[in-house]
Amino acid sequence: MTKRLFLALELPAALTRTLAALDPHIPGLRWLPARSLHLTLAFLGEVETATRESLIQALQSLDAEPFDLSLRGLTRFGGRDRPVIVAANIPEPPPEIFYLHTSVQSLIQSAGLPTDSRPFRPHVTLGRGKNCPALPLQRFLHHHAGTVFGAFHLDSLGLFSSELTPSGAHYTLEFRKTF
To answer: What's the rounded Cα separation, in Å, for the pair 102 and 37?
Structure first.
């Protein structure tokens, strides 16, 4: 049996509610609900049960330090032939998040899974869309360019499974590593 898995940092509930409430209701842009907001460290795709267990065992050895993170402003990725992604910025990512990402990548490899070779750009995805009208999206992003969404303390990493449904993805926490 396989599960669609990813590793992520959970955000405080009050912050996820604030971010979800920003929904600009732009046609073609699907805004994510509060329960779906997180900071992805690694998307693993479909993973067999035995490999998942190996990954959990590897994650238990994760040696990382808690750190603070702040979100300020919005940005967009994608466009042209790719879907538009609207995300909350992490304007000054602390070195601890890059250390955590590198450590997680090593543990993923040690469990026999492939890693993503793209540069890590920490952010929180808020919405995804296709054929979004450019002007309303640009105005929305400009309006929130300097918005401070808050700072929070991170001291754990979660392994989540993702079930895709017609109403969107539903995430289940499979394992949590506190550091």
So the answer is: 22
Number of domains in the chain: 1
Query: Distance between CA atoms of 41 and 48, rounded to whole angstroms?
Result: 20
* Owning domain of residue 65: 2-178
Count of CB atoms situated within 10 Å of the CB of 89: 20
Give the pLDDT of residue 168: 82
**Helix-strand-coil split of the chain, %, nearest 5:** 25, 40, 30
Q: Residue 170 is part of a domain; what is its CATH number?
A: 3.90.1140.10
Q: What is the distance between the alpha carbons of residues 23 and 137, in angstroms, rounded to a whole number?
A: 11
Enumerate residue ranges in the chain where pLDDT < 70: none
For residues 56 and 64, is the Cβ–Cβ distance under 8 A? no
Q: What is the pTM of this model?
A: 0.94
Give me the sheet containing 156-165, strands edge to edge: 38-48, 2-10, 156-165, 168-178
